[in-house]
Specification:
66% helix; globular; two-stranded antiparallel sheet; Ammonium transporter fold; mainly alpha
Length: 433
């Protein structure tokens, strides 16, 4: 759960005259770049899975988030997430964080410039709404999407981030040592996955689904995107230690092990169930393992990360099979991977948590603290994230749809997102005009 759980740093408060730790700062700069790399990685992963007429429009869903959310983050996002409680703790606020105007020379207790921490967290805020786009790919009005991710960031991501990661957030302080979300299982993946499911159920399916066969346009791009996501995830998880030491190494190791185990488990399941091990299955297993270990990376040992990789792949594979039977059109399985994987990791970590962490929790609680106590805390946090993200997403889409039609028209959808909303083609030489 970031540096606050692992080292006791209370920290989003500047230290006057503090000396910068160059090693920690260098790693956090690297981690920030790695998390940013995940966004074009996600664009490639999603872009390869859609039809050729939608590849550029789908990639734009990730890239436009880099612009919109970055600007919002500097203006008020960082303040809403990491400022002091206002309005009963619904979100935070600190005028020094408004336009980042008060942190120009600020050094945190973790001995890194506050600018670095702010930009690191900015990348989390960018990728979370971009993940949602996978649920309603190939049928979303681009203008409506831009408004949606702006509103969703302000009204869903920022409050949830404050509750879980700010030092006075109520989920951060729930129970003995708070709800564990080391790098975003709840804040990022559950919120994005559930929001994607709500959007899909509200908007309905792509035209022709499920009767028309919809095939990926470029699995090579998808596999390269999955590889970039795996690499970037080291910054995502290991960077969340906000240090460069033992906790960083622990999180990095757990990340590698969970991804590898998840990928192998998925293709084994495919081999048993379908008689083939697909490239898409391997990529899906990578993501299932990475998503599940995200909330747990700092509090489980390698064998625990392996358990999460196995369990997440089983549950995510089952969720996708169930989706196919129920017939709702989660285009790129945003809920099946991110929602189910995030829930799995956030809950199951309670049973494989480091004994030393539990001992510290018991000490903080003034006596005993069992895995079932922690499981209860985790379940409360997961439940709140599901209900809050789901309800607010429905409200945002419902209201926004009154102003800007959220779903593309039949003509626009048939022509493709690339041509309808961008006037371009992803594969120009293959589609001369």
């Amino acid at each position: 759960m970031l540096v606050f759980l692992l080292t006791g740093i209370t920290g989003l408060f500047a230290s006057d005259g503090a000396k910068i730790d160059s090693g920690a700062t260098a790693w956090m700069l690297t981690s920030t770049a790695l998390v940013l790399l995940m966004i074009p990685g996600l664009a490639m992963f999603y872009g390869g899975l859609v039809r050729s007429k939608n590849v550029l429009g789908t990639i734009m869903h990730s890239f436009v988030a880099m612009g919109i959310i970055s600007v919002l983050w500097v203006i008020l996002g960082y303040s809403m997430c990491f400022g002091k409680n206002i309005l009963g703790g619904i979100f935070g606020w600190n005028w020094n964080y408004f336009f980042l105007k008060g942190i120009d020379t600020s050094i945190m207790d973790a001995r890194i410039p506050e600018y670095v921490f702010s930009m690191f967290q900015c990348k989390f805020a960018i990728i979370t709404p971009a993940l949602i786009a996978g649920a309603f790919a190939e049928r979303i009005n681009f203008k409506a999407y831009c408004f949606f991710i702006a509103l969703w960031s302000l009204l869903v991501y920022n409050p949830l981030c404050h509750w879980v990661w700010a030092s006075d957030g109520f989920l951060y302080n729930l129970g003995a040592r708070g709800a564990i979300d080391f790098a975003g299982g709840t804040v990022v993946h559950i919120s994005a996955g559930v929001s994607g499911l709500v959007a899909v159920l509200y908007l309905g399916s792509r035209r022709g689904y499920p009767y028309q066969v919809i095939r990926p346009n470029n699995m090579v791009i998808t596999m390269l995107g999955a590889g970039l996501l795996w690499v970037g995830w080291f910054g995502f998880n290991a960077g969340s230690s906000v240090s460069s030491g033992l906790s960083t190494a622990q999180a990095l190791t757990a990340t590698q092990v969970a991804a590898a185990t998840g990928a192998l488990t998925w293709i084994i399941i495919e081999g048993i169930h379908q008689g083939k091990a697909t490239a898409l299955g391997f990529a899906s297993g990578i993501l299932a393992g990475l998503v599940a270990v995200t909330p747990a990376a700092g509090v489980v040992k390698p064998y625990g990360a392996m358990v999460l990789g196995v369990v997440a792949s089983i549950f995510c594979y089952s969720a996708i099979q169930t989706k196919n039977k129920l017939g709702y059109d989660d285009s790129l399985d945003a809920f099946g991977i991110h929602g189910i994987g995030g829930i799995t990791g956030a809950l199951f970590l309670s049973f494989i948590i480091r004994p030393s962490w539990m001992a510290e929790a018991a000490k903080a609680h003034g006596g005993s603290w069992t895995i079932w106590n922690q499981f209860g805390v985790q379940a409360i946090a997961v439940g709140i994230a599901i209900v809050f993200a789901g309800a607010m997403t429905f409200l945002i889409i419902y209201c926004l749809n009154k102003v800007v039609k959220f779903k593309s028209t039949e003509d626009d959808e048939m022509a493709g997102l690339d041509r309808s909303y961008h006037g371009e083609r992803g594969y120009g030489m293959l589609n001369p005009s």
